[in-house]
Amino acid sequence: MIDRTDVTANPANSKAQLGDKAASATRWAFASQVAAKLISPLTTMVLARLLTPEAFGAVASVTMVTSFADVFSDAGFQKYLVQHEYCCKDDLHRSASVAFWTNLTVSLGLWMLIAAFNEQIATAVGNPGLGMVLVVAGFSILLTALISVQTGLFQRALDYRVLFKSKVISSVVMLGVSVSLALLGFDYWSMVFGTISSNVFICVFLTVKSSWRPCFFYSFKELGEMFSFSGWTLLETISIWLVSWAGTFIVANTMTQNQVGLYKTATQMGTAVMGIVTSSVMPILFSSLSRLSSDRKAFDATLYKVQACLAYVLVPMCCCLLLFRDLVITVCLGDQWLDASLYLGLFFFSSSIKIVLNNICAEAYRSMGKPMYSMMVELAYLVILVPLLSLACANGWGAFSVAAGLAQLCLTVITLVVSHFLVGLSPRRMLKNCAPVFVAALSCSVAVFLVRTFLPKSYLFDAVLIMLYIALYLCLTYSSDKLSTIYNAAVQALRLPSKLLIAR
């Protein structure tokens, strides 16, 4: 059930209590994402052996449309409910009701629009004849509106245990429904109904577990206040959607269908892995920073500490994935996908830098009530991304892979500039905090790479080398004061047993 005590409205809630709740929330959020991200690739791998690539392509086109509609079905109100400071629970619940009825109305309008022009939209996205699929899949837009407010309230209360259960069980529901229907010969409909079934479960589950119910209350004044914040978040989300789909459009228009498949599959796989971290840590960071927005010293200290702890885990993991990218592709997708290994490896490495520096700062902007800065960064990135990828495509798949990784590094530079001049964060301090991690991870990578070049390729040797990589990194952690400090901070932040701490 939602903890109806509002942290911001109750002075009795200390920072220590908030820290405990945030740590518990982090553990549950991380657990839910790990479980969901493990089930999702499993679903994909099973369905890939039951359905044709054409079926996946059809669903991808449909998803492009529904995901764009989903951007407007929430309009950023969820983050507003998490971030805004309320005087009492009644004010929070009134805002929640306004957000609920607004989301439901907009979602219903979007669904009707898709239904009215379904064939025209299907043709526009390159799949004529799939209009009815769009109509059915568009039902998920309504479910998104029903889920959004409930999710925001649970996030605000830092009650991620309920969100954990909903995430895991819904992933299992999707797996069961999709695979069952695929075995019965439902082709791409199996994925469509699997997604809808999953969303229906989440909607019912969160409604049952929540103590909040929408009341018949509406205020355009309240809507205006909410939109003054969420409007920028909405624009940012639109820009993120454009960035997410820009590469697909470019590859589809300049390269072969095979390369489109390499790009989409590798991107989805990489995003799923990185999402384990971002989807669990970022909401917690946003909730915690929002409550510290009036204390800039504590705000900065928390931000830099989380950034260093995240880098400690993420950077070595992604360096290892870059080093063993061919093994990852072979095990997860099969030898027929090996051409995607360079792109996937560079995607992992550049994404680790992007998440540690860009994504962290983006949460800082939103928690400060300045989501417009995130939108500015995304739009600037889009201006660089489109011409860079377009030029790279003319030079082949390898050049495109390098350019895609380089583009993410450009995004990081843009973020550091905006953070310094508009927000007052210190790029020097951020880089200094993360430098020991990067040096240690890259040193381990070089050492293992050199050893690997002299060994015959085999699963056994690769497994041994991965263990060697981990051992080297842990040895550096124990021998370096800076790395051990970051490690201990991560252990303490997660409220892990004190025996795991490195004594100095």
Characterization of this structure:
With 504 residues, the protein is mainly α. The protein has a domain at 1-218. The protein has helices spanning 15-48, 53-74, 77-83, 89-116, 118-124, 131-137, 139-156, 160-183, 189-209, 220-254, 257-291, 296-323, 325-332, 341-367, 372-393, 397-423, 427-453, 459-479, 481-493. The two termini are 42 Å apart.
The succession of helices and strands, N to C, reads: HHHHHHHHHHHHHHHHHHH
The count of β-strands is: 0
What radius of gyration results from the CA coordinates?
23 Å
Sketch the major β-sheet: none
**Structural class, please?**
mainly alpha
Shape descriptor: globular
How far is the first residue's CA from the last residue's CA? 42 Å
What is the helix content? over 70%
Strand content: under 5%
In round numbers, the mean pLDDT is: 80
Number of helices: 19
Low confidence ranges: 1-14
Question: Quick recap of the structure?
Answer:
The chain is mainly alpha-helical. The protein is built from 19 helices and no strands.
Describe how the helices and strands are arranged.
Blueprint: H1 15-48, H2 53-74, H3 77-83, H4 89-116, H5 118-124, H6 131-137, H7 139-156, H8 160-183, H9 189-209, H10 220-254, H11 257-291, H12 296-323, H13 325-332, H14 341-367, H15 372-393, H16 397-423, H17 427-453, H18 459-479, H19 481-493
Helix pairs in contact: 1-8, 1-11, 2-4, 2-7, 2-10, 3-7, 3-10, 4-7, 4-10, 5-6, 7-9, 8-9, 10-11, 10-15, 11-14, 12-14, 12-17, 12-19, 13-14, 14-16, 15-16, 17-18, 18-19
